[in-house]
Amino acid sequence: MTEEINAGSLAGFNEFCKWLIQRGGMKAGAVEPLRSAANQIVNTVDGDAARDVDLRILDVDEYLGRFENKAGHNYSPNSLRAYRSRFGRGVDLYRQYLEQGATNFRPPAGRAPRKRKPDAPADVARVAPSTGGITAGGEPTTHTQTALVDFPFPLRSGQLAHLYLPQRLDKDDAERMAAFVRALVLEPQRQITSAGEAP
């Protein structure tokens, strides 16, 4: 654990997440979505100045509003709600750690997720890790053995694809995955013209 963890910065938050996992305070599958959301939001809002953001005094609601103003068009309402929840929870945990210190900090006990069946938005495609297929809407499927991280990927059509990948992706797997995605491309068929007609 480095001294940077106490800086109140995004880098400090990332160190906190790493410490939380290594200490066994929370499972990696629960921490990584918080870390991923915080990095995505802060880097989107402040870009190169992200390192100067002080999470100790940040107005979370105001900051999330700025994130939605800048990049909300890339996300579905369900995705934005998930980002809000994860960012708020992550910052809250980090602030508790900074106030209480490593010795006294106690992460909340894990709770079973509520069972709910949200309406499936038409503009979001999710890659479900249990099947490798793409399903529209719904909650992300959790792999039972390996902690997977949600990587949102904006498409040119305005849709948002979600890739659920391991924290460390092997180069060969990445190349195989790229080849698989290329195989999914549907090229437009050329129209057959009558003899003598211009194509």
Description:
This protein has 199 residues and is an alpha+beta fold. It has a 4-stranded mixed sheet with strand order 2-1-4-3. The longest helix is centred in the middle third of the chain and has 28 residues. The termini are far apart. 17% of the residues are buried.
SSE arrangement:
Layout: H1 10-23, H2 28-46, H3 60-71, H4 77-104, E1 124-127, E2 134-136, E3 148-154, E4 160-166, H5 171-183
Parallel strand pairs: 1-4
Antiparallel strand pairs: 1-2, 3-4
Descriptive tags:
alpha+beta, 2 domains, 4-stranded mixed sheet, 43% helix, 11% strand, globular
Q: Outline of this structure?
A:
The protein has 199 residues and is α+β, with helices and mostly antiparallel strands. It contains 5 helices and 4 strands.
Strand order, biggest sheet?
Answer: 2-1-4-3
**Cα radius of gyration in angstroms:** 20 Å
Could you estimate the helical fraction of the residues in percent? 40-55%
Share of β-strand residues = 5-15%
Would you tell me the structural class of the helices and strands? alpha+beta
How would you characterize the largest beta sheet? 4 strands, mixed
What kind of assembly state do the chains in view correspond to? single chain
Report the mean per-residue pLDDT as an integer. Answer: 78
First-last Cα distance: 66 Å
**Element order, helices and strands?**
HHHHEEEEH
Count of alpha/pi helices: 5
Low-pLDDT stretches are 122-145
Number of strands: 4
**Could you say how many structural domains there are in total?**
2
Overall geometric form = globular
